[in-house]
Each structure stands twice: as C-alpha cells, then as structure tokens.
Specification:
2 copies of one chain form a homodimer. With 571 residues, chain A is an alpha+beta fold. In chain A, 29% of the residues lie in helices and 22% in strands. Chain A folds into 3 domains: 96 residues, Beta Barrel (OB fold (Dihydrolipoamide Acetyltransferase, E2P)); 267 residues, Bira Bifunctional Protein, Domain 2 (BirA Bifunctional Protein, domain 2, 2-Layer Sandwich); 88 residues, Gyrase A, domain 2, CATH 3.30.1360.30. Chains A, B: This is Aspartyl-tRNA synthetase 2, mitochondrial.
C-alpha cells in the first residue's frame, strides 16, 4: 500500500468494470465480475492471466460447446491484446492456490468476453523488455510503461507529490501559484532555452527556476508560496540530466533558515512513503567547511564513515620531500582516509583502485596542499573506494537507509574559474549574507558566508535554498560592486525591493532526483513518464525536428547552417 | 471561508508571528502577540492599521516617554513599510468597536516594534490602484498583488485546484503524470512556439496540449491520468488570451462519454467553493444541432431564455420577396428571437441595437437561408440584446447563477474555410466517430457526428473532450483518406494504437477561464499571478527581449530583420 490506510481510491468509478485485476480475494467468491485488462499469458485455450495496473487475475476459459465462440475469441487473441471478461469468481481447486499472487486464491470463470483491441506482434517480449537497450525502451516507451516497475514509480511519485501538497496547502496555508515559463533572459543565463517571438529580434527565455517570480510574490504579500514547477536547463549532453525537470518550489515571508529547515523536514516526513520506513527529524547539519574537511565534498554520503583525517603532524616526521614541501605552504596540510578492511579487497579490486588513483604499488595515499582541491580528490576517492568495497561484497551503505543532511554556511562568493581575481555568486545573486559576516561584505567579500543551505540525501544534493536579500541597497551593492554586473536587467526586482519587500527565504527540492533516490532507481529517467535521451532527444516522437523555412518566417529567424552542411546543401 | 470547515490552516507555523492580522478576536484579549505586516494607514502617531493577506488589525502606538523610540519608529515609517509589532491584545474602548472589521472588537497595544523594510514613495496610492490603467498595474504587478481582490483570486484558485486533486487522486485513483513541454511540431501546429535546439535546423515545439502524451499513457496502461498542465499557444494579439495557460487535463481507459461527464460533474461539485452556493448535477445536455437551432451558438448561455424560434410557416404568408426567396432554397428557414420587454429599451439603446444589427428603423429581424450562419447571427443578436437590456436596468442573467451545459454530437469534420471541398477535423483528428454513424464515415463523412463533448458555463466554453480513436486502422483512414494528411509525423501514435491500445477518452478544462467565471472576474488576467499583456508582453520584466547574436550562435539561428529595420541598422 503506497498511501496511508485512510485513503481509499475507487478505481472502478465511472467505468463498467466491477473490479481491478489486483483486487479479487476469496471473499469475492460467487460474485459476478467484469474485468478489463491485457492478456499477459494464455495457455492452450484453457486459461489466461489478465493484467492491469493493479495486478494479475487468472481467467478460466470455458470449455463447453455452448461457449465455443468465447473460447475461440480468447484462445486466438495475441498476448498484450486488451479484453473485457465477465464471469464468476471461484475458489481455485485445492492445491492450485498461488500464495505469491495476491489474487492467488481465486480464478474467474468467464461467461462472456470481448476483444477490445488486438495487439500486433511485439518487437520483443514484454517480460524481456528490461533487458533491452534503453534506446529501444525509450522508442517504445508506451510499452515500457506497462511494466510493474514503471507503474509503481509513476504512481508513487504522484502520491508523494499529493501528500506534499496536502502538507503545504491544507496544513500550513501555502498558496499554489503558477508562474510564467515564457520570460526574459536572466543575467548569465547561458543555459536558458530561447523562444522566438513574433517581434523581430525579440526572444522569450524558458527560466531555470521561478526564482524572481517567487520573490516578487513575497513582495506582493502572498506570504507562503509553493509550486510544483517545471524548469528548463539547456546543458547540451550531460548524463542523467533532463532539459526539462521539476522542482518543489517554496518561498516564505518572515522566515529564517531554521524555519525553512523545519518546514522541509516536516514536509518529507509527512509525504514519506510508509513502505520505506520512518525518517527521523531534525536532520543533522554540517557547515560547508566541515563537510569539505571531513568528506571532501559539499554533498557527503553519511551512510558510511571513512572520514578524511588530518595527518599533517604525523607526516612532518616522515622526511619525504614532497610532503615537507606541501606542508611548507601557508595552508599546507596532509590528509588521508582509511579504507576499512581494505585488504578484503581481492588482487583485482586493489589494482583497480590503484589504477583509479593512478597509484604505484606500495604507495600510500597522501594528498597535500591547496585545501579545497585536495579534499575533493580525497572525497571522490572515498566514494570510489566504497563502490569497490561493495563490488567486492562488503555492505558499506545500507540500501534501505536514508541519510538526510543539511549543509550550511556556504561561501557567498567564489572566484571565477576563468579569472580568479573576479567574484561570482556561489549560488545566485539574491542570496543573503550571513548576519555575522555583514561587515566583511565591504572589506573582504571572499570571506563572507551566506545564508544558503543545501539538503543532501545519501550523498546527492536534493535541494537548496537561502534567505534572500530584501534590502534594495544591499542587493544593488552585491550586483554592481561585488559582482560587477549590469543591474539594469534586474531593475524590476530592485524596484520591488524598495516598495516594502518583507524579509523572505525559500528552497527548491529536485523532485526527479528525490523520487529516484526514494525508489532506488538508477536514473531520473526511471521516474519520468517520457524522458529525453542524454542528448536531449525524444526517441519515441523524434524531437527536436526540422521545420520549414516558412514556419520560421513569422518568428523572423533563419537557420545558420554550419559551413559543411551548407556546402552539402548547395551541391 | 474558502474551504470546508474541516480544513484548518496553520498560517503561523515556522515563523515568529503568533497570529495573522485577520485572526484576533475578543477571546484573545490579554494575550501577548507578535504580528508582521504592512502599514496600511497611520494617524498622528496615535495608531496604525496593520495589514497582511488575512486582514487588518488596529495597532495602538504607545504614548509614554519610556517608549518614545517605538513611537518615533512607527510614526515615521511610510505607508506600505513592513513591520513587526509585539504587544497586548486589548478590547477597544466602548463605542469604538468596528463591526465591519472582523478584528473590530480589539486593538493591539504595542510594546516593541521593528521596521523590517521601509517603503519608498509609491507612484500612486495603493487603494486607488484599481482605478489606474491596466498597463501600470501590470508594470507594478507585485503591488497590485497586495490588493485583497487579487489575494482572494489567487488563493481561491489554489484551493479549488487542491480540491480537484483530492477528488481525482485520492478519491478516484487518478495518477498525476507530468508530460513533456519540449516536443515536436504537430501537423498543422501553426500556433506552436518553437524552441531552437543545439542541433542545427532542429527545433522543439511547445505543445498546445498534452493530447498525444495522454493517449500514449493510456496505451501504457496508466488507466487514469490527470495533470494540471501548462499549455502554449502563439496566437499573436488576441484579447483575453494568454500565450501560456493552464488546463485540467484528464484521460481514462475503458470509459464512455457518460462516464467522463459524470466524472466532471462530480469534480466540479466537489471542488466548488461553498460561498458560491451549490451546483446541481447532472448538467443538462443538448446536441450541437439543438444548440445552434435554439441559441445560434454551440456555447449557449442558458441563464436566460429568448430562444430562436422557427417562423418559416408564418413567414410564408407574408408575401415579402426576399423572405419567399430564402424559403425557396433547400434548407431555407426564417427564424426570429423575441426580446422580452424590448420596448423597455430607451431610444438610445434601441438605436444601438439597430446599429449593431445594421437594421433600418421599423425593420423586423428576420434572417434566412444557410442555417448555420443564419443561426450564429441570431445567436450574437441574442447576447447583444441581453447586454443592452441589462445596461438599461433589466436583470436577465442572474450574476450568482451558474448554468453548466453539455453540448454533444458535434460534427466530426467541417469543410475547410479556404477550400470547402476539403475536410478538416472539427476538433482534432483523434476524436472517435459516433458509433451510430460509423458507416457514414466511408460514404458521407460530412454527416458523421463525433463523440466530442463541450462543457459550457454561462455561455463560455470551459472544457472539451472526446472519446478517442483506439483502432489504428480507423485512425489511419481518418488521417490519410478523409483529412489527406501525411500520417508519417504521427507514426509513433499509430504504432502505439497497434500494440493493444485500450478504448479511452478524456477532457480538458480551461482552468483560467473557469476560475475567472467562478469569481466573476472580467478577464483571465485577474486570476493569473503574472499575466502577459494582450500582445504577449510581460510589462513588469519587459519580456520578450533582444538577445545578442552571440547568444543565438549555439542555436544556429540568426534574426531575419525586416527590410526597414535592416536598412535602419545599416545607416
């Protein structure tokens, strides 16, 4: 049962079926029932197994002469044909019960039947589908959706979101507000899809999140906003990303960091599926500094230990030149992780690990100097070691455990990668500085911590948010003086902050990722009905696709063909 | 109260306020409370009125010397500044109660206060806002959102949608499935926005509805699907349309027309706001033919009578030549409507009506021949007459009445406007023919009725749907033989129908229109947080906007400037 027991769906309202295929029990014996479903399996004109989204029911085909037309109909129907059957629920003969099947005590003796739609020969057997290439499964997504796994995933997703809505809307007075997806480019929005308008040269942009709108709603006195928001990000080809994705988007007025954290803990606890066991709140919290120091990453997987240890003092006495060298730098440290039962490792795994780290035999893993990069290397090493240990049979990370973790006190700004003397926002320019670091903003902005918080689940970032800047002067200072950006493009937001904007903050949860982790699915594609391939293509309907030059005319655009293609077209 | 009384929001969870500004009553007297809100009004340093989304509370400013800093703070804060006040709830002095104000029995005597954000001088008074031009209101939408009307509209919308979800998801086992908005162009999809991809010449398209996906979900065995779906339609400039809009999108397997109708009646009854009075079900139903004959439109407003009457027999005896002429045609009829108390009309209104119809004085309204066009003219006349009668003080259409109506048995195909010898789908090519008219499909498709149904409320179409074609052969026949369309672009759907597609049908309700009718708002812009202008512009953030040629490069497109602009740029 996916839902608390007080919720009772009526799956047979408004249709002619009396029951679903997962419903009948011995208590129904003697009842006349009508079922609709797909033929999963049929044997020698004797019986068949009927399937719908709820389960399987065994159907006995009548053998007497008077019903020969029914027998003929059902015996000749290909598997995956859709049928209606009407008949009497009966106990299975003693010894023929199937305890593995929820409906395994009964069978339905058919009286009348109808083939609603016949299925043409499948390009593969449904039950082998999971073994087929993902490209083939995505091309025939509508067949893959019939699998009990995808049925379960999509239904669980729907129900978790419904529970979240109940919590936000019914219990805590949040307002579900839809915000536009046709907006304009945000500064630095290089990953935003463009949508040409009918005004020559003017484009809408599909926003990466409703960030500006939710802040404007707070200025508008909406007080508590949420939206299950479709967001867009054009990242080209990146594994396990989707060009469109969904976030649980939340914003509140008059709230502080702790308030948002308690809200989210309550939200997850309330919507958590019973069958995954309870989760405990409040979630533990670490600072960004601590996370990097202990785990070498800002999204630590805390289901296992193997923390990074500072062994600078020990190393000083070793007399190894490159270690001494590293320690002589201002922030020089030597750190290590201990791989428990590492020797458990077979020869092959050991050498894999050695290879992954480009280690020489007999080396000891010591990484030094430049604390940030050093730690992230050790952090990756930690996770890779865990993968290898588990591949070798050790259970380090309980697959049924859910370790939530808040990561807080991020830096507000980071040096730009391409030019480290300039600063960029670690998250986005609307993030408020940490109240204790306000004066540093004007003296040494690199040292300012932010009021940003990330939510991490089993080593995956599943959410992030912040308390926002509500003071126009401060916002302008950050944009113009620290980030050296043209604030003109955000003038509507700066204006809004001057007209009595309340203090506010919020968060967004990545729904696709969260659901896939709850289910234990390997990819977010497993919790999306019609996902795109990692190149952003729809393999079922072949999108994106070519359009005619005439269709582009009303949008005042034309294709700039790459030289090679243009040449080819010419010849 | 917008919601049934069993739903109790906690508006003060996770924040430091103890109450909202609409909550305090005499039962709270003596309590120490903390409120957050905007200064609505302040008088001579004596008191102020604090406002939030829930209401207003009178705040008494302390006058004693010890609190002079609090007095100074609150007296100097401009209206629409955001403040926190903490103080004691007290009864108002006898005679000073305000029975019009829900909190009118009490006031809060401030002990401490804090200005959270000061408001700069407003470009207009908030209370005069409604009188300002709509363009100005849309530019400062975040200020307009503070009005009690927009707060009410957006909150009611949120709660109605939440109730719809409860009905569909919790009571009837529907699955909320998100479908892609980046897809490919559908045949004839001239109104679909394009989204350039990073593959040269290839474009996504923003779909006008999830039609294909919801049918594919049925093929995938999802059985019952719904989605509050964002849809897109590029219609250029049309009044009271939005380039993006929302529909309650529903699809079911194994259902017939009656099943969908009962579902929707139940849905509306369940989600209907108590304060609008009950609605009765089932809704009445008329055929398309009857609607045209009686009301001259396929979306009749049945709140008032004034039906169109066939006066052919009477007219035959009149001996007027053009009437005789009209009656001599095969489908020639003469029809009329009677305007009750039409003489109530003042001279001015009479002449307006005369002008609207291009009538001469003393003419009698008689329209003849070509039944469809004839009726639609009389249909417009009927509504215009009602407008005029109401402008003159007569109440024809009860503004508190909600008349739902099903219109059924639409024609499946209509002659193309530009070439009447060819046919196009009256709705879309997936609509199933009426079972009684199946044979006509092959002999005389123009006579085939469809299994399409529209839901009409007070003369507005608020929904439409149909039973779909689930047979691949029939679908191919309609596409290729009747509509003469290239079915290749829909090959994925035709394939899907061959793999055991169940019989299915569905509907979509236009949420923006429905909510605006329930509220009685003049425009759908009044129930959308950030609407676009009728030219599709966002007047607050200035979208759409220009982008640099560099930004277009990765999408392999360039702007084709209209000649005049290109010339201007050259010079």
């Amino acid at each position: 049962p996916l839902l608390p027991s007080h919720v009772k769906h009526n799956f047979s309202s408004f249709v002619a079926r009396t029951n679903t295929c997962g419903e009948l029990r011995s208590a129904h014996v003697g009842q006349k029932v009508t079922l609709y479903g797909w033929i999963q399996y049929q044997r020698q004109g004797l019986f068949l197994v009927l399937r719908d989204f709820q389960g399987l029911t065994q159907i006995i085909i009548p053998q007497d002469e008077a019903c020969s037309h029914v027998k003929k109909l059902l015996s000749n129907a290909p598997v995956e044909s859709v049928v209606r059957v009407t008949g009497i629920v009966s106990l299975r003969p003693p010894g023929q019960e199937n305890p593995k099947m929820p409906t395994g005590d009964i069978e339905v003796k058919v009286e009348t039947a109808e083939i609603l739609n016949s299925c043409r020969k499948l390009p593969f057997e449904i039950k082998d589908f999971i073994k087929k290439s993902e490209a083939l499964r995505m091309q025939y997504r509508y067949l893959d959706l019939r699998s009990s796994q995808l049925q379960y995933n999509l239904r669980l997703r729907s129900q978790i979101v419904m529970r979240m809505r109940e919590y936000l809307c019914n219990l805590h007075g949040f307002v579900d507000v839809e915000t536009p997806t046709l907006f304009k480019r945000t500064p630095g929005g290089a990953k935003e899809f463009l949508v040409p308008s009918r005004e020559a040269g003017k484009f809408y942009s599909l926003p990466q999140s409703p960030q500006q709108f939710k802040q404007l709603l707070m200025v508008g006195g909406l007080d508590r906003y949420f939206q299950v928001a479709r967001c867009y990000r054009d990242e080209g080809s990146r594994p396990d990303r989707q060009p469109e994705f969904t976030q649980i988007d939340i914003e509140m007025s008059f709230v502080d960091q702790g308030g948002i954290q308690r809200l989210i803990e309550g939200l997850l606890q309330y919507s958590w599926p019973e069958e995954r066991g309870p989760i405990t709140t409040p979630f533990p919290s670490v600072t960004y500094e601590e996370a990097l120091a202990d785990y070498g990453t800002d999204k630590p997987d805390t289901r296992f230990d193997m923390k990074i240890v500072d062994i600078s003092d020990f190393s000083r006495s070793l007399g190894i030149r490159f270690v001494q060298n590293a320690l002589s730098y201002p922030h020089g440290t030597v750190k290590a992780i201990c791989i428990p039962q590492g020797m458990f490792l077979g020869q092959e795994q050991q050498s894999e690990l050695v290879q992954a780290l480009k280690m020489q035999v007999d080396d000891v893993v010591l990484l030094a100097a430049g604390e940030h990069k050093q730690c992230s290397a050790l952090g990756s090493l930690r996770v890779e070691s865990a993968d290898l240990l588990e591949a070798a049979g050790l259970v380090l990370r309980d697959p049924t455990a859910f370790h939530f973790l808040w990561v807080v006190d991020f830096p507000l700004f980071l040096p730009k990668e391409e030019n480290p003397t300039e600063l960029e926002s670690a998250h986005h320019p609307f993030t408020a500085p940490h109240p204790s670091d306000m004066t540093l903003l004007y003296s040494d902005p690199t040292k300012v911590r932010s009021q940003h918080y990330d939510l991490v689940l089993n080593g995956n970032e599943v959410g992030g948010g912040s308390i926002r800047i509500h003071n126009a002067e401060l916002q302008r200072f950050v944009l113009e003086k620290v980030l050296k950006e043209d604030s003109e493009v955000l003038s509507h937001l700066l204006d809004a902050l001057e007209f009595g904007a309340p203090p506010h903050g919020g968060i967004a949860l990545g729904l696709d990722r969260l659901i896939s982790l709850i289910i234990g699915a390997p990819s977010i594609r497993d919790v999306i009905a019609f996902p795109k391939s990692f190149r952003g293509r729809d393999l079922m309907g072949s999108a994106p696709d070519y359009v005619t030059p005439e269709e582009l005319e009303s949008y005042h655009i034309q294709v700039s063909w790459p030289v090679a293609e243009a040449e080819a077209k010419k010849n």
